[in-house]
Please model this.
Amino acid sequence: MTIATTVGTLSLTNTAGLTLSYDNHWSGDPSITFSGSQADLDAGLATAELSPGDSGGSSANVSITAMVADTDHVYLAPNQHFYEYVADPGVDWSTADTAARAMTFDGQSGYLATIPNSTVNNFVSAKIEGAQNVWFGATAYDTPGATYPRTWRWAQGVGESPLAGNVISYCDSAALNTTCDSAANAGLFSSWAWLEPNNSGSTGENRAVTNWMGGVGYWNDVPDADSMVQGYIVEFGDRAIGSTGFTGVVRASSSLPVVDVPAAPTDVRAQAGAGAATVTFDPADAHGSAVRYYTVTAMPGGRRATCPTSPCTLSGLSDRQAYTFTVTATNAQGAGPASVASGTVTPHAPPPAYVHIAPTTVAARSLTPVCSINEATVSYCAVIVYADGAVVGVGRAARKAGQRSAALPVPVALNRQGQALVARPGGAALLLRAGSLTSGSSTIRGADARTTMVAPHVALRRVYFAFDSAHLDQHAAAYLKQVSAQLGDAAGVQCSGHSDYAANNRHERALSRRRAQTVCALLTRGHHHVRARAHGDGGAHPVTTNGSARSRRANRFVAVTLTY
Model:
């Protein structure tokens, strides 16, 4: 029996008389497969609980699939298919394919397993006992002269899977000992090991294995026959999702609304008054049940106030006592978790000294915010700068004797952590928090300000290429797309291409220039305001010798610098 959910995780607390299937757990997973007598199964199911996690407010499809206990077949709830591992050391792919299509299970014909997404890949790598070094249904098809001379697909032919012919990976080259790669693979799922598939050897490789040589969940291409193969995985189910039916298998499902206590409110802020504080916050996610009220708690002391929405005002606080505040939301399910505490505020008797920071946007490694002071007793202003929750800079400026100006510049230099953060693409969001000291030695909290800071020049990590290629692999393309989304107000991008050999300077310069153009083009796609400059140095400036394959790969790269 398998119980599964599309949202959250499941648990069974009464497991007496029940036996877990391979690599299943009684709690913490979205599905549990187990066996037992009908009475024990009924008793266990009566204690099943759904933990929604952060999915309150959504709907969960919970299903139960039951059959006579069968240790040879393993069920995957998301696609409602069954799988069987056939141990057959040394079997070749073609023989395994024929044998799989001749197998049946409860009225459904088999075929070598397809792995179209990460859910199935994780299942095949972990939930099928003994399935190491095994064939599955991926195969390569060569079409000389086509845009993609080699294409990996799910095996085609009579009796193959419902995904037969669907593309797994496009290859820009079908040459021997060449890694299959193409920009067209964006959006396609595969789990090839690093630098695979590579059509290695003198005769090439056109079949695929998974869980190969200890690489759990990773694929490799091999010839039709390989002595290291230990067997193959057969899949049963004649539709991509579900099937026309398994005899002897019963499945039922139901959609359940997921209701939970509210999430924690966010962005909690406090403003001090005389013996009081006003706390504002962003509303909590109700998780399927309307929030009835919010509770604000002051620390120290634990004084509380409730209100239907933001803001909440707490009175009865002690002047000159520093406080922080947390907020919880309550619905029909109960109280949710407490928010992150607000910044510290200190209630004070009027009139307070008041300090605020004029916001500023900079492109350097230091900044000079301005404190505006409207209380004659304020003797100095201090500014603390935060980024990613950490202090990255502190500045202080004293008010000169007799100075009447209410604008007090406060120079702040960033520490090493701050300099590293602003050297990222798009820079870092900074929170500037001000405080002041009066002539009576009372510390007064000022208002906060926010700004964005970015270094003038940001160097990205190097982008590496395969030998004699100007095409990006999927990992490099994904990294560059992520950087492109974070460019912010970048003014320019400079891409410098390099190659590993200098024997033919003209060829190597042209190749390195194409590499640089490829990287610059992807980074600036959709950013018409960003100036791109790409050039190739060929092999003129290697970072290491070309004495090994590893060192030659280290010289095939594009260096990128962003200018702000």
Q: What stands out?
A: The two ends are 59 Å apart (CA to CA). The CA atoms of residues 54 and 263 lie 8 Å apart. Residues 457-563 form a domain with the 60s Ribosomal Protein L30; Chain: A; fold (CATH 3.30.1330.60).
